[in-house]
Fold this protein.
Amino acid sequence: MDKQFLGEIVNGLFPRGAHIVSDPEDVPPNERFWLVFGGSGLRWIIPQDSSMAIKVLRQWQPYSVLSFLSWKALLASYCHGYIRYFPRVVGVGVSEITKENWGHAGWSGGTVTHATYIGTDGPARKAVTTLVDAKTGVPCSVVKTPLTNLASEKIIYEYDVLSHISANKKQIAPKPIFINREMGVSRQDYVEGFPTGRSFSKLHVRYLQKLKESGGATSVREQAERLTYDLLQANTVVDPLRNILIYRLSKLKSTTLLPSTINHGDFVPWNIKKIDSDNLIAVDWEDAILEGLPFFDFFYFQHFQNYLFGRNVKKVSYPQYGDTQFNDSIMKEIELFSLLAMVARISEHGRSMVYFEEKLRSL
């Protein structure tokens, strides 16, 4: 266990002085937690009292078969009190947890405990904490805490995006509640629901239609120039890949005006919750584009899953966007732009590019 990294997480989550106690028996029951490790390190910090976090954990779902089965086994052991025997689970105490410790996230309600998910290691790594009412076990809010400088920027940006969506009364995203711009910490509504399946359904179609911005217009060329500018300003994508992306973006020439839409930017099943039989809500808007291209999220949903899981995602045909006609040439450019944007994002994590190299050669 990396005690230094764990200490940094605790200091970020509880800046008023909470600290790690190696033996959980040395602290009261409400201050005892399980650290759950995955293949890439610490992934969860959850209360040892399973009634305080099980509602949160049941709404989280891995998508590979092996990970899914392991997750179900972990939840069963957690509920029945055997999680201490599960591989890569360690008990600790986190002392001096009080509601005041969440003041930096704008929390002024009753006493809460929490279930915290630690994001994948990378330049924008963050902790996503669900505050849970300590009396009822009901989830209250979600707090996002940066573990890197870039994560702080993205959390603040997401808060501003959610504020824009909320101001326009679109019921498509969590409601933003609080932002601490100095610390890069935000708090938003907890969205109750379950992740969608991997197939692109009619519910997804209806959801993406809600993202259309009234009266706005953009073009593939405009979006290519925006991404080119971002690549030149950022240092997260390095040469020679950056030069290749900029070159491919320069070949996108279409200036045909298209109805602009809010792009979620990471539209994948684990970021999409089904809140009832007819409605979806997407979470994690850190990579959103407020005036983006139609169909961007459609192509992202398909290609990102094919990249991760190595097989095609079943999809339905996407309907026309109002009165706008999308010919094959424009659709090809939108798909190519979507792929280039995905490459720029994924390269930050040092992952394999074989899938995208093959797709880009085919377009």
The radius of gyration is 21 Å. The longest strand covers residues 126-133.
